[in-house]
Amino acid sequence: MGDVLPELTDRLRDFIGSQSVFFVASAPLAADGHVNLSPKGLDTFRILDDKRVAYLDLTGSGNETSAHMSDNGRITLMFCAFDGPPTILRLFGRGRVVLPDTPEWEELIPSFEEMLGARQLIVAEIHRIQKSCGYAVPRLGGAEERDQLTRWAEAKGEDGLHAYRLEKNTRSIDGIAVEVAGSPQTD
Fold this sequence. Notes:
The N and C termini lie far apart (40 Å). A hairpin with a 7-residue loop joins strand 6 (74-80) and strand 7 (88-98). By secondary structure, the chain is an alpha+beta fold. Helix content is 23%, strand content 31%. The chain is globular and about 45 Å long. Strands 1, 2, 3, 4, 5, 6, 7 and 8 form an eight-stranded antiparallel sheet that branches. The chain has helices at residues 10-17, 64-71, 103-108, 148-168, and strands at 3-5, 22-26, 36-40, 45-49, 52-58, 74-80, 88-98, 118-132. It has one domain (3-168): Pnp Oxidase, Chain A, CATH 2.30.110.10. The protein has four helices and eight strands. The longest helix has 21 residues, at 148-168.
């Protein structure tokens, strides 16, 4: 089960800050819906306070987390040490999507590096913080960032990214409608 903590401590903040990858899990309420699990990187995660976090979500081939946030808001973020002391940290919470050109986006976006392909922020209010050992997680030292997503976004440009989002990011694999910045939500 691991240790359950009331809030993010300085030690946990340091641990999160030293990780080059984190994982996001979400699922629709429908019993036959797909659970989604996505790896994330590129310095897109921020701690907003002791129980609230956010990550900058970049354009990708799907938009499952956004769909699940609109369906029920359940989200789990996981960090695991692939180097250093073995540790797994899970943040369980309720998430929501913040789109560009909203007051909340304008408030939060200065905390992040500017990245072409940024499509939304996922903000989560954390209700359970659980730390466990991670003894079975292998050491994978020497991780380095990939630049393919950045190069792909640069090649598409803003207009191409918007068109891609309209084509690929407006419905989840379970058919849940997803709002994309710059266009109305469809059912």
